[in-house]
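Q: What structure does this chain adopt?
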Amino acid sequence: MDILIWSGAALSLLGLGGLIYCIIRVNRARRAGLEDAALRDAVRQVMPINLGSLFASVLGLMMVILGIFLG
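A:
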């Protein structure tokens, strides 16, 4: 079960890295002083990465909890 715990932790960290990337990218777009339509477009481009990262993080945490319960 150690493999399940450590792979879940790695997947969760990967998802966290993706979330941090999304935060940085949107923050840069906000600081660039873009107009409303351009800012919405930038956020729209980041949204799939954000959702995928959130899913990976949740899945990783579920793997960790499952590994702890089974171990």
